[in-house]
């Protein structure tokens, strides 16, 4: 666990900054990064989700849960913060899609299980006690199922600020674990190897790693974002969970 941080403290921080207006602004397809760099690859890595039972682990305001349901999946969203799970449930009440939202900390033992696929998007780098959360995700998938997780790329976490200041990206302390203070709440830097070694230790087989770049047509209309076409600010990993469970 990250020193001096607990999951409870992180949840309180996210809960205190998650305004209803901010949640509503990204309720359809997420923020700019999700819309243009992440979502497309999440759906490609999951494949055809129609008829599948999918866990959206750390679902936030529920935007991805709703997009999955619109593609024919039966979706359960898990979210620990009062503000976000309340927003997601209210949205479901107003526009029913059959999504079930559960308020829970992924790092705590649970009876989640039997999912064809599990997606954990932009969550693990915000969780101090992240290894139990990853174990929950893997255990929730059926043997031989799919687990997709996405992160802010550990090698390029402060890409926008670095590019504005230097016209290039600089990184140091890469091998350490430390807090990254953000505008809404803190993330935690860990090297990429920490995440990949953990899924390997859990018996998963890596299927694909994606480092998406911004499409040329978006760069043409938003030239100030050219850096996102040259360096990957985000990372997606798709794994196959173990073919059998050992006692």
Automatic annotation (TrEMBL):
SUPFAM superfamilies: S-adenosyl-L-methionine-dependent methyltransferases
Gene Ontology BP annotations: methylation
GO molecular function: polyprenyldihydroxybenzoate methyltransferase activity
Keyword vocabulary terms for this entry: Methyltransferase, Transferase
Domain Methyltransferase type per the UniProt entry, residue ranges: 55-149
CDD domains in UniProt: AdoMet_MTases (cd02440)
Highest taxon, organism lineage: Bacteria
UniProt-recorded name of the protein: 2-polyprenyl-3-methyl-5-hydroxy-6-metoxy-1, 4-benzoquinol methylase
Organism of origin: Stackebrandtia endophytica
């Amino acid at each position: 666990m990250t020193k001096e941080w607990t999951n409870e403290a992180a949840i309180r921080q996210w809960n205190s900054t998650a305004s209803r207006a901010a949640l509503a602004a990204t309720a359809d397809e997420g923020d700019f990064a999700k819309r243009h760099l992440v979502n497309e690859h999440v759906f490609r890595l999951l494949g055809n989700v129609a008829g599948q039972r999918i866990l959206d682990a750390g679902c936030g305001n529920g935007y991805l849960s709703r997009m999955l349901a619109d593609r024919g999946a039966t979706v359960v969203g898990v979210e620990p913060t009062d503000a976000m799970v309340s927003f997601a449930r209210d949205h479901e009440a107003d526009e029913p899609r059959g999504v079930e939202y559960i308020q829970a900390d992924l790092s705590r033992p649970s009876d989640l299980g039997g999912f064809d696929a599990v997606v954990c998007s932009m969550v693990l780098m915000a969780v101090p006690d992240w290894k139990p959360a990853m174990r929950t995700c893997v255990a929730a998938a059926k043997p031989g199922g799919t687990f997709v997780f996405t992160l802010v790329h550990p090698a390029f976490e402060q890409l926008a600020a670095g590019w504005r200041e230097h016209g290039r990206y600089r990184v140091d302390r890469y091998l350490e674990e430390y807090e990254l203070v953000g505008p809404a709440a803190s993330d935690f830097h860990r090297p990429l190897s920490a995440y990949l070694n953990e899924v390997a230790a859990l018996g998963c087989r890596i299927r694909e790693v994606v480092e998406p770049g911004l499409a040329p047509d978006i760069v043409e209309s938003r030239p100030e974002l050219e850096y996102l076409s040259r360096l990957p600010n985000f990372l997606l990993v798709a794994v196959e969970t173990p073919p059998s469970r050992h006692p």
